[in-house]
Amino acid sequence: MLELPEREPAESNGDITSEPERVSHSTKHQKRVFSEREPLLENGDNFLDPDDPRVSPLNLKRIKLLRTILLAVLLFNTGLFLLVLVSDFISIPGINPRGKSFLELDLVIFCILTGSITLWCFAVPAYYERLLGYFSCALVGLDVVVAISVPYLRDQFGLFGNMLMLWVLANLILNCFADFWIEQGKAQQEIRYTGRIEKRKSLFEIFVTGIKIFVKFVLLVVIWNISLSLWLLAFDSHEKPWGKMVSVNEDQFKVHLACFGDVYAGANGTNDKPEDPSAPKQPIVLVEGGQQTSLEQFQEWIQELYHMNKIERYCIWDRPGFGFSDSAPSPTSIGIIVEYLMEALKKEGIEGPYSAVGFDVGGLYSKVFALRNAGQMHSMLLVDSWHEDLLKHWPFSGPNKKNEKRKTFRDILDLMDSWQGFKVWLRGVVSPLGFVRNIHWFFHPRSYLSKSRIFGTDMVRSPKYLRARLQEQITASILSYNEVHTADVGSIPLSVILSQFMIKKSLNWGKWQRELTKISAKPLEWIVAENSGHFIWESPKGRDNLQQLLLRLVSEKTNYMSEKEAS
After folding, report:
1. To which CATH superfamily is domain 244-566 assigned?
2. What is the DSSP string of 456-487?
3. Which secondary structure element, helix H or strand E, spans residue 11, and what is its range?
4. Whole-angstrom Cα distance, residue 565 to residue 427?
5. By C-alpha distance, which of 336, 357, 328, 341 is closest to 469?
6. Rounded to an integer, what distance in angstroms lies between the CA atom of residue 327 and that of residue 339?
7. Domains of the chain: which residue ranges?
8. What is the percent of the chain where pLDDT is above 70?
9. Cβ-contact 330, 89 below 8 angstroms
10. Contact (Cβ atoms closer than 8 angstroms) between residue 193 and residue 54
11. What's the farthest any 2 CA atoms get from each other in the chain?
């Protein structure tokens, strides 16, 4: 509290104010006590206290309208979130671009959080919160330019993805200007009703401002990591697939198919026709990769045989979401994915005969492919393959099964239960931020190149791959199990190789592998790769076992008959 000192007598034209007037005037002001919250303008008795509800900027019509608009936008973003979330499980026309991943979901969540923090304590503006919003606008604006200007990203995101990027930018701009308009409205109301702009902040206002600044800073970090991942994706687009990108499912998306050797000629020695000396003598080796490894990594031991002229021809392909292939619309299953492969082979005019080689979960895909293309199959090779029981929520239940813990297969394979599916979904939601991939790129740029992110060690952290894994999880016990369980490959020659490591690791693995030998009426070989892990080809002895087994298999005489000959 401050007391106004006694004012000196006023002078005018050299005359001194009369004594009665001076006494009256000085007494009036001497007893007046000024408060820090008292207006400094005249007629202060007519002004309100700054804490009076009538001083709030929420009383302004334009601010009320602005708040209504922000609430409508937040409601729209919530509906958009539910739509994008559902599209991960059920295909919705128009919002399933070729590169669909969890990025769309993250961007919508970002919009919801941005709008919510702006609407929370709407009447309390924060300058530094707005400043952080400006930085976010700049990053998203740059992302929009990159997404539209890079042909690969423009094609992957599609119309929905590109419009969503613009929508995020519009949300950020709206929230930044909303905070600015609130600040201007607050100042206007304070001048009108209190006579001055209130510079001091209450403890509650300081608390709210601090929370808003912290949340906006976290959102800035989030959008920075998303932007960095997007820029890396644009940079990785220079790495072109060495095969062909074949459109499937009515040209909705493309899959990567790479074939080596003359895959357009039928193999001799497998029927009664006279042999053509120039034609290949071996079937086409059709390779299927595993759950946590790309096909490009698995096929190295086959590629080695090809370069040594021991394997004449082979084909590899990336399942949807893996490697170079686009994302597939939901739902999917092993049978649906196999249909995509069959369509790609048909479009390329590749008719077989085939010798299917399946590793890990790829063994189940090879099994279904052999069933649906029995007339074009020469043989099968299962490499430490899954059993269909692993598609169940609890694979260890049932007669003659050993009860095992989840950690038995840790870092080797993921079970298809609900809990594992939920973890895959959580990993997918976080994956667009690319924390690990960004760290790898920043600190080890020579070790983690574009190939690593596309089909190498960092592929398992990409949003597209994790979405494919989620799709696989959702339908495993519902669709895929029935498709595989009923698959009888008949008399197709079959060889099975398994790792010594998995037999020792799991009490059920050896039993499952023995059951796999019974899916064919013509089992040829059963081999245990000693001193080899699940990735058998990584050990010298396991690699040699694989190669020798495959060479014996493709040289096997079969009763193969093409569909044309059968007709």
Report:
1. Alpha/Beta hydrolase fold, catalytic domain (3.40.50.1820)
2. STTGGGSHHHHHHHHHHHHTIIIIIHHHHHT-
3. strand 11-12
4. 49
5. 328
6. 15
7. 2-54, 55-236, 244-566
8. 87
9. yes
10. yes
11. 138
Contact by Cβ (8 Å): 539, 511: no
Tens digit of pLDDT for each residue in 291-308? 988 888 899 999 999 999
Going by the DSSP 8-state scheme, the letter that residue 31 receives in this structure is S
Cα 452 versus chain centre, distance: 16
**Least confident segment among 90-104, 192-206, 495-509:** 192-206
Q: Are strands 284-288 and 15-16 parallel, antiparallel or unpaired?
A: unpaired
Determine contact, residues 428/467, Cβ cutoff 8 Å: yes
How many residues comprise the chain?
A: 567
- Name which of 549, 545, 543, 555 is nearest 299 in CA terms: 543
Parallel, antiparallel, or unpaired: how do β-strands 354-359 and 314-318 relate? unpaired
From CA 561, how far away is CA 227, in angstroms rounded? 54
3-state secondary structure 494-523: EEEEEEHHHHHHCCCHHHHHHHHHHHCCCE
Q: Are 510 and 503 in contact (CB under 8 A)?
A: yes
Distance CA 110, CA 389 (A): 40
pLDDT in tens, 403-455: 888 788 888 888 888 888 899 999 999 999 999 998 998 888 888 889 999 99
Quickly count: other Cβ atoms within 10 Å of residue 523's Cβ: 15
In terms of Cα–Cα distance, which of 561, 564, 552, 563 is closest to 271?
561
pTM of the entire predicted model: 0.83
Q: How far apart are CA 174 and CA 188, in angstroms?
A: 21
Query: To which residue do tokens 């298999």 refer?
Result: 553
Q: Which two tokens stand for residue 278?
A: 């120039």
Find where tokens 């840790």 sit. Answer: 410
CA distances from 184 to 132, 137, 454 (A): 19, 21, 49
Distance, CA of 317 to CA of 314 (rounded, Å):
10
Tell me the per-residue pLDDT of 463-481, one tens digit each, with 9 for 90 and over: 999 999 999 999 998 899 9
Distance, CA of 116 to CA of 462 (rounded, Å): 29
DSSP state of 448: S
Pairwise CA distance, residues 154 & 316, whole Å: 27
Q: Which residues pair with residue 245 across a beta bridge?
A: 256
Note whether 377 and 354 are within 8 A (CB).
yes
